[in-house]
């Protein structure tokens, strides 16, 4: 393909290995409350969603199981996930070197909160590679799979969405990038991903799926 004019990156599960931590914490706490999900189906449904949408969708699914969660569940889950991330978070291996190989303007477009996004990128020493072009779902009306955050990032870079490539680990993220008119690449280098994830990303419309940051870096060098 023609080299893109800009590359826009998801954060969780792409730049930082936070998704495996969050998924483990979520499924464990839900099971403690008697709510169980198939891990693959859960990942496909919820991965990449913004906080408000996640809790709204979760409430629907829990009710469909004939269960209820206590009013404290949301705060309990957020506290558990944050504690685990603070203790265990690392960059996805190879991310820093691959990002350094990007010649085009770049940005982060994430479903995380602004505070959480800044904390995770600074903790993994990736903040300076993108700032000030780090954009959170807090900035837009609708989170992924709506295109809002990708359109916001493209506008901030002053580059047409159709000239941008988005790198995503979630079906919701790929759908959002495509809805924005961008070319979407899947990424399965995060610890939470497997071949089932790769197939789901292709089905959602990713033009290709990158296995890790070494493969991504080689592609970025072709686009220089």
Search tags:
224 residues, single chain, 2 domains, DNA polymerase, domain 1, 11% strand, alpha/beta, six-stranded parallel sheet, Rossmann fold, globular
Question: Can you describe this structure?
Answer:
The protein has helices at residues 19-32, 39-46, 51-64, 73-88, 95-100, 114-123, 127-130, 148-157, 171-179, 195-204, 213-222; strands spanning 6-9, 106-110, 134-136, 164-168, 183-187, 208-210. The longest helix is centred in the middle third of the chain and has 16 residues, at 73-88. The two termini are 13 Å apart. The chain folds into two domains: 6-17 and 89-222, Rossmann fold, CATH 3.40.50; 19-88, DNA polymerase, domain 1. The chain has 224 residues and is α/β, with parallel strands linked by helices.
Sheet with the most strands: spatial strand order = 3-2-1-4-5-6
Distance between the termini: 13 Å
Largest sheet: 6 strands, parallel
Per CATH, the architecture of the largest domain is 3-Layer(aba) Sandwich
Helix/strand-derived category reads alpha/beta
What is the number of E strands? 6
How many helical stretches?
11
Mass-distribution shape:
globular
In N-to-C order, the SSE pattern is EHHHHHEHHEHEHEHEH
Helix proportion of residues, in percent?
A: 40-55%
What number of structural domains do the residues give?
Answer: 2
The low-confidence runs, each spanning 5 or more residues with pLDDT under 50, are: none
CATH class of the largest domain: Alpha Beta
User: What is the CATH topology of the largest domain?
Assistant: Rossmann fold
At the fourth level of CATH, the homologous superfamily of the largest domain is HAD superfamily/HAD-like
Radius of gyration: 17 Å
Mean pLDDT: 95
User: What percent of residues are in strands?
Assistant: 5-15%
């Amino acid at each position: 393909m023609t080299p893109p004019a800009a590359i826009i990156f998801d954060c969780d599960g792409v730049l930082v290995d936070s998704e495996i931590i969050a998924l483990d914490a979520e499924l464990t706490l839900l099971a403690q409350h008697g709510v169980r999900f198939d891990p693959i189906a859960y990942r496909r449904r919820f991965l990449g969603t913004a906080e408000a949408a996640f809790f709204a969708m979760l409430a629907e699914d829990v009710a469909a199981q004939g269960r209820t969660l206590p009013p404290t569940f949301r705060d309990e889950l957020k506290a558990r996930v944050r504690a685990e991330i603070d203790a265990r978070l690392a960059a996805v291996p190879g991310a820093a070197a691959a990002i350094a190989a990007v010649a085009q303007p770049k940005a982060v477009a994430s479903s995380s909160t602004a505070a959480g996004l800044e904390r995770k990128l600074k903790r993994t020493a990736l903040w300076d590679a993108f700032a000030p072009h780090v954009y959170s779902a807090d900035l837009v009306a609708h989170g992924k799979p709506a295109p809002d955050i990708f359109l916001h990032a493209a506008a901030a870079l002053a580059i047409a969405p159709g000239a941008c490539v988005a790198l995503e680990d979630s079906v919701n993220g790929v759908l959002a990038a495509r809805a924005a008119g961008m070319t979407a690449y899947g990424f399965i280098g995060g610890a939470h991903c497997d071949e089932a994830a790769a197939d789901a990303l292709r089905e959602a419309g990713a033009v290709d799926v990158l296995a890790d940051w070494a493969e991504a870096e080689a592609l970025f060098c072709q686009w220089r």
